[in-house]
Design goal:
Two copies of one chain form a homodimer. Helices cover 20% and strands 30% of the residues of chain A. By secondary structure, the first copy, chain A, is α/β, with parallel strands linked by helices. Chain A folds into four domains: 162 residues, MoaB/Mog-like domain (Molybdenum Cofactor Biosythetic Enzyme, Chain A); 58 residues, Alpha-Beta Complex (Molybdopterin biosynthesis moea protein, domain 2), CATH 3.90.105; 89 residues, Molybdopterin biosynthesis moeA protein, domain 3 (Beta Complex), CATH 2.170.190; 72 residues, Beta-clip, CATH 2.40.340.10. In chain A, the strands form eight sheets. A six-stranded mixed sheet of chain A has the order 7-4-6-5-9-8, with no helix packed on it. Chain A has a six-stranded mixed sheet with strand order 16-13-17-21-20-18, with helices on both faces. In chain A, a hairpin with a 2-residue loop joins β20 and β21. The interface between A and B is large, with 87 and 86 residues.
């Protein structure tokens, strides 16, 4: 049954799909050290106190603070040197009144001591004792048990994407394994009678399949596992078979649609034939990218992206990347790096549609400028020359020279 | 021979090392489709014209523009329909005066035609002919040979880091292989008598080795291949042997120094014993990170980073990442993403030193705010809670609430 679709704003289009998306139930257990970029399935608290013994924050002498009270350059406190703390070993020397122990940064405070006097505030008396020339307060230069992190204190929350510091932090409390969401599998189906593989010499009327490769790299950058499927011709049964196989195998399906209207309609028909709810969006107020199709079939989001390479990349960034992040369990949008920059020239646009313009960024006198890179039909080359895409918002009729605009790195 | 070092500013410190760094001579040949993040060793121009045949930019009819001149709703031009262009095939139907051929977006313009009339501007006359209701100009809706990219036109320059669009663009002109700089190998040597491996339960006085893992993840993020070496004890000969092996095996060597002054001095002594020029920098006006050592030995940069986990990460970002990028052939700094944000509170600092403060970013009414995350001794946990680090410049005595500061994502 053919449905009538009105063109939606990008935000409206995303809202149609969003309610269908929830994190994958597939969970992996990975070594924390190999967890870079993976997403936690649960909140994590520290199983231990950090540090788990009182540590010295300085090179100096462990002392009883009370023994240094009143000490000054003119009237130093004399303390008897009774040993040295060995790094990596329990402090076995116990400190009595009037005694000091040599200690290094990170060394364990010996029993009886409650402060560390910095080396700079002491004088060595022929190896048997020291003079302290500045009084130490109780706890000075000492990191107490649990001061950095208490047992049970929240460490990371569900949906966090592991960064280098998270790997270091988890390992520091002994968490050498983590539960993370499975990687989102994204099937990429290039379609079109005109496509040949990149290795082939295209004849007259043919072009190379490049979308599957560019989108595959984008999927990889978003933490997904791309699955490049073979080229499908503009044939209803072949496309249906391919989409069906992709829906079974992958978590997200992306059809890079043929470029003609009939080829795009075929994508919509095939998707609708595969089950409810089928096509949710057919047409977005967007340039490039208007003929985008967004669907949900067999429990999986299915996207029909325009065949034009730049349109395919921009719509992938707008709709497929957020879907990957949602399925992948991320608690907040991660990689969407937006900068503000001033336009170096007027950029025309049409109200009622979001325009994405490749731009090159340039810093002058500490301010960022965006120079539009205009292309011809294949905007892929403009994206190659640019550093990002500037967004002309829906309601604006263009951007004036000097006006500030939002640029997404690309 | 012990040398006297003065503490340098971060910029001065980098300038000491920079003249020694040049791109690796090791070159890899990789499939373009697998080239994401790799760095080109040469300028690349297009070997072909794109498109290599005249293509239709629309669904419509290929015509001779002259046959449509004067056409209007009231006085349409009648053209005889003589065929259809099959996608992916050479156009074999040649067009004569008064004729039209059905064509799809991306189809090859047939010989004799010089324009495409959009479907919307035509009426079908019982399958044998069409009425054109709007005149077409020569070249209208046609993408000429080489219009997107001419043979010989520059495509990408030496030192470019391949992004998804670059992969797509290279493949679109048939460049399925590229020459790229070898991946930079970074050896990470954790040192310290107090270290145990993350799987072990640290006893009193011991802590887990986490720096090698966090820095290894950072190296990976910068496109390098991290090599984690075993824990080295605070012993001159053991450290010398490890650094020597690392210098032979890797392109960059990072010693995560023991935390005491004597352990750090040992690193400097070991490095100096291995050849000229040896230690270039010993101490940087930086917090955290003051005791950083920067050296060049056996043709390789060697870094002695502070043992404190957060100090190690921040100095790695400041000095080791740029070195990796330089050796890796990048023509410009890539990943240093800096944002501007307003401080939510006063941040004290000391003039004469660059301060790096973990911050959490928050957007309110379209403006970005940076909330400092204060930590205790182990700032790794502050880095975990933050989104980046704010930089308090060298000459400033702090940042006032509401003042704009630079934040590096971390």
């Amino acid at each position: 049954m053919p449905q009538l679709f009105t063109v939606l704003t990008p935000q409206q289009a995303w809202s149609k799909l969003e309610p269908y998306l929830s994190p994958l139930e597939r969970i992996d257990t990975v070594a924390t050290s190999e967890g870079l970029g993976r997403v936690l399935v649960e909140d994590i608290s520290s199983p231990v106190d950090v540090p788990h013994f009182p540590r010295s924050a300085m090179d100096g002498y462990a002392v009883r603070a009370v023994d240094t009270h009143g000490a000054s350059e003119g009237l130093p406190s004399y303390l008897k040197l009774v040993g040295e703390i060995t790094m990596g070993r329990p402090a076995t020397v116990a400190l009595s009144a009037g005694e000091a122990v040599l200690i290094h940064t990170g060394g364990m405070l010996p029993p009886g001591a409650d402060a560390v006097v910095m080396l700079e505030n002491t004088r060595d008396i022929d190896g048997s004792g020291i003079e302290v020339v500045r009084a130490a307060a109780r706890g000075e230069n000492v990191i107490q048990v649990g001061e950095d992190m208490l047992q049970g204190e929240p460490l990371l929350s569900r949906g966090s994407v592991l960064r280098p510091q998270d790997i270091g932090g988890l390992l520091s409390v002994g968490l050498t394994k983590v539960y993370v969401y499975g990687r989102v599998k994204v099937a990429l189906i290039p379609t079109g009678d005109e496509l040949v593989s990149p290795e082939e010499d295209p004849g007259m009327g043919q072009i190379r399949n490049t979308n599957a490769y560019a989108l595959s790299a984008m999927a990889f950058q978003s933490g997904a596992v791309p699955i490049r499927m073979g080229i499908v011709r503009d044939n209803y049964d072949a496309l249906k078979q391919a989409v069906q196989a992709a829906v079974e195998m992958a978590d997200v399906v992306v059809v890079s649609a043929g470029s003609s209207v009939s080829a795009r309609d075929m994508t919509a028909d095939v998707v609708n034939s595969l089950g409810e709810p089928g096509v949710l969006v057919h047409g977005v107020a967007l340039r490039p990218g208007k003929p985008t199709i967004i669907a949900f079939v067999g429990g999986k989001p299915v996207f029909g992206l325009p065949g034009n390479p730049a349109s395919a990349m921009i719509t992938f960034q707008l709709f497929v990347v957020p879907a990957i992040e949602r399925l992948g369990g991320r608690s907040r949008e991660a990689g969407r790096l937006e900068l503000k920059a001033r336009a170096t020239r007027n950029i025309p646009s049409t109200p009622g549609r979001e325009d994405f313009i490749p731009v090159r960024l340039e810093e002058r006198d500490g301010e960022l400028y965006a120079e539009p890179v205009f292309g011809k039909s294949n905007m892929m080359f403009a994206l190659m020359r640019g550093d990002g895409v500037a967004v002309v918002p829906l309601q604006k009729a263009g951007i004036a020279v000097g006006e500030t605009l939002t640029v997404r790195l690309f």
